[in-house]
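Q: Could you fold this chain for me?
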Amino acid sequence: MKFKKNAIVATLVTTAVVSTAMLSTPALAAKKLLLKTPVAFNSTLPALGTPIQWVSDQLKATSGGTLRLKIYEPGKLVGAKEILDAVASGKVNSGYSTAGYWQGKIPAASLFSSIPFGPEAGEYMAWLYYGNGLKLYQEMYDTAGYNVHVIPCAIISPETSGWFKKPINKVEDLKGLNMRFFGLGAKVMENLGVGTVQLPAGEIFGALEKGAIDATEFSQPAIDQRLGLHKIAKYNYFPGWHQQATVFELLINGNTWKKMSDPQRALLNLTCKASMAQSIAEGEALQFDVMAKAKDNGVEIRYWSPEMLKTFEDNWEIVADEMMKEDKFFNKVYSDLKAFREKY
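A: Sure. Below is the predicted structure, expressed as structure tokens.
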């Protein structure tokens, strides 16, 4: 098992591609389209919410006003957990989230969001764009009956593994803890005796402060700092085995997508592809000073022992095997990804 940095230089060429698209603005259809886009994350959260604001700004500049994206902050138009249903039903014509939020409805959804001990950003993008990832991603929504078109629109690098109020030195220290945890990693923690709950960003600090939860994970250090997690939980663990990379999606209502002109669809695809490069570069650049400041504020940055990491990985394999047996489409996607990773 290796935790390594993947080169992202190749993805940056997409920015040049979008710049080229700017030259063809007159080719965009004359009809104007406004994508009303509720988001699952506040647009000011660095690398988590800022990518969709970046996309909105770029579309305004490159489309000549024929394609606009208006952002609605979490809960302003629809709730974060309601975005998929709202887009599919046509209540809104687009939405920005991460597929892991739909795990309860579609077991395979988290495979397009983040995977324990899974691919880092470069490998994830390789599978999505040059393997079967994108095809399977759309197939997932189609077969589940959701009238949406999906576009990967941001990706961030590894998160921290969690914030704890007390040191965790062995597996037994996890038993009985209540912890906010996301996605497939939550199933691993449950196997180890942790009670998990998925809370939105705005509720995490209060839950920690009141003792409703003993620990939490949320995102990268620069984002966690905004939530003030370091003020209560002083032990921050690395590496983020549960989320080596996290993909974020732009969902477009299926009928809206069909009515869009070819140039509009191309520009939206290109802008989101450029956002994949933009978001990971931003996320990678923001962490250094934040981690140093955390130490100054009394936070202990700790690293899981090889024994603990092996325990997490062994339990993830148990969870993955169970889910492959329980859900045919999960099996199909995860088998395809595993085959790609073996070659990678």
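A (continued): The mean pLDDT is 91.
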